[in-house]
Amino acid sequence: MRKIRKGDNVVVITGKDKGKRGVVLRVLGDSHLLVEGANSVKKHQKPNPMKGTTGGIVAKEMPIHVSNVALFNPTTQKADRVGVKQLDDGRRVRIYKSNGEMLDA
Predict the structure, then answer these.
(1) 3 state DSSP class of 66
(2) How far apart are the first and last CA of the chain?
(3) What confidence score (pLDDT) does residue 27 get?
(4) N or C: less crowded end of the chain, CB within 10 Å?
(5) Taking the chain (105 residues) in consecutive chunks of 10 residues, what is each chunk's mean pLDDT?
(6) What is the residue extent of each domain of the chain?
(7) Cα–Cα distance for residue pair 99/78, rounded to 1 Å
(8) pTM for the complete prediction?
(9) Cα distance between residue 73 and residue 70, in whole Å
């Protein structure tokens, strides 16, 4: 079970974008994520008339490692670690480590 999924609200905890909050746009493999507004770079892009894209300098988000982000806990207003707990009916749910509150309803 993944601890951080698409659509989660995360905080960058290390690197040049430390402290920024954003939503996970995509999960790339086991170890990288695309986070909205974090790790954005300027890329020089050639025009491609076949795809209809124009050339120039484009700002885009690059992947960031999972270990450099933490889930944002709305009750404590801080970054929090995530654990997995198995319920009585056999379902596995994610919980915040600080207060034991469930993420998945």
Answers:
(1) helix
(2) 15
(3) 96
(4) C
(5) 92 95 95 95 95 92 96 95 94 94 82
(6) 9-76
(7) 12
(8) 0.84
(9) 9
